[in-house]
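Good morning C.,

I know you're traveling, so I'll keep this short. The sequence:
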Amino acid sequence: MLDFGFSLVTITWDSFLAASLDSNAMSPRVLGHWSPWLLAADTSLIEAWGTRLYNIALMLLGLGFVIFVHELGHFLAAKMFGVKCEKFYIGFDVPMKIGPIRLPSRLARFQWGETEYGIGSIPLGGYVKMLGQDDDPRNLKEENQRILAGDNPTTELSPQKSTSPDTPKLDPRSYPAKPVFARMIIISAGVIMNLIFGVLMAATAYRIGVPYTPAVLGSTMPGDPAWKAGLRAGDRIVGIETSKDDQMSFDEIRKKVAIGGIRKLEAPIDLTYERQGERKTIQIAGSMAHADPDARHNFQTIGIRSAAVTEVGQIPTYSRLLKLEGRKPSDLQLGDRILRVDGVLFESNDSGNDFFGYQLDELLHPKLNQPVELAVERKDAKSKQSLTVRVEPVALKTLGLRFEPDAVTAIAENSAASAAGVKLGDKLTKFNGQPIEDGICLPNRIATMAGQRVTLELSRENSDPIQFEWTVPTRFILENDLPTYGSVGLDLPGSGLVYSVSKKIASVVPNTTAAQSGLRPGDIVQQMQFGNLTPEHQTYLKESRIESLFAKQVPIDTIRNLQYIHAIVQALPVGLPLEIVVERDSKIQTATASVMNETDVFSPDRRIALSPYRQTYVAKSWAQAIPKGLQEIRRGIGDVLEFLQLIVTGKAFNYIGGPATIAAQATSAASQGVSPLLMFLTLLSANLAVVNFLPVPALDGGHMVFLAAEAITGKPVNEDLQVKLTIGGMVALLSLMLLAFRNDILFFLGSWM
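The tokens, ready to paste straight into the viewer:
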């Protein structure tokens, strides 16, 4: 049987979702920051390449094993019914040449008994060649002639008895000579083997231990659907749509939200979460507000991030920036567990011995302008010690420009702003009776007023000003320094509203580069670009892989707004110049502003990189592991069927992945360990089983349709019709494969660029 399906369709959510908002990729305080802009490499080049080659080898073995299992199913079933198997190949051994140069069609081969075993040069699947069966329509007549009894029969056995004088006698060891039920078993055996081994691989992974990121929220993005619906840090999601699982992974949530958006954008999604032992189901709609304008694939999100734990993850994360600015890092070390902030112990939770990063944030952010003392537990090979580490406040970075606040863009349910009747479009004008001239720094200033009663005034078109009061919480998370595209806004702690920032400059800080270059109030910022960089700045940007962010003029609009620019500035060294294009009196002007530290406004980010919250599910027995394996194969089949439905409706053509995508995903899984690789191979087994059993001629499912027709009518499908349908099926498959190759090229080219 010729199996194209292995590389034809693969679910590529994990690759395309890697930069999705709903992941740690957007959290600067968790390892795996939105870009690896300050990670120091300790591994030597040789070690890195050795590890990479090892992972590639594991990937090749894993993918080869899945193909082997599928073909082994066909092979064993054929042998069981006495069918002669002439070839058993992993990969295709198609003759190839470039001009006069003939390329090797196979990498290896050997003969054992009547069967030739080999590895073909084209790694797009595999096949078992049975006597009397050939998926190439051009060889059909020749193959039919070969199996006629008396034409070099394979055994001394009597030829097949004819039921009619006109029926040719067939070689009894040929595939067509076997009864329909036997051929059906042979055809379906590959799929059955994939499903069986898929269950076994997943069960083995669970016996070893499957690491996953629990669906515990670390934070919600201000103004996004989850924030507006009232979800908050610490909530554990235990159900989404029809999926219910107390050990649900964060990736499962991310995937379901994304797929829901492909099916129907911003359609309501049923979400069940647990908070303090109580469960509640809500409906929440996804959003495309954070779509990357330069990305080929964008997915809807709901604005959630997974949790971290208070174990220090990667000290070198900020080392380049600190070194360039001449600042000393804190005394925290890799592996330190933070237990208290200024003597305040974190509340217990269900993460075992760990505390969550959001609990640390809730204590640190209200003190962002103060030094704090962290009680940490430090372990080494021989002992465990407790000590106190002092962490200084970190100045907020700006360009020396102040921008007016603009309109309210989101209001949380059951919040102070909602109760006061604030509406979308209202504009912030005064805080505590004073005009607001600095919309970007306002949340950071309010953060220092924990426990105080404050007042906000807003203007509304054709209406009197609106005032409302609220008490700034004593514990909160300030999420205003994350570099995200789109209509994300800034929130004021405890207010329940999110607002945007105007592009109009309200004031310029005196004696700064911005002031000296002629920028002034009333200028409207249009574009930004890196200015004249020093060699040190160029080296830093290149090593941090952010040299392309402002390599050319970046338009300041609703996609890359000033909040986005503000977040990027936090990653730039003090003194780095940016060329700014502004509109002044309907004319375009160009000036320069440099990154500077504010003297009285501070960042919530203390430059502490935390480890992601991960758990490992270990099945205590095979009796527990096998049901988990069955659950995974069912989930995989469901994912593939859902994906195929989206293809049929024309909504998922851009997400079909080919061999390169499969190889990349498998290599990534292999780099994480044996269990993740086995789980990926389980998904791939489900993928191969479903796709190969589609009712498409040239696939196993197409052969099954022909056999079903033969069983019903009592005679084979007309040969000419089979040929025409098979050619049509192969054309469709090859077209889909070309689309998959195209997607691979565009995806990896885009990633590289």
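Safe travels,
E.
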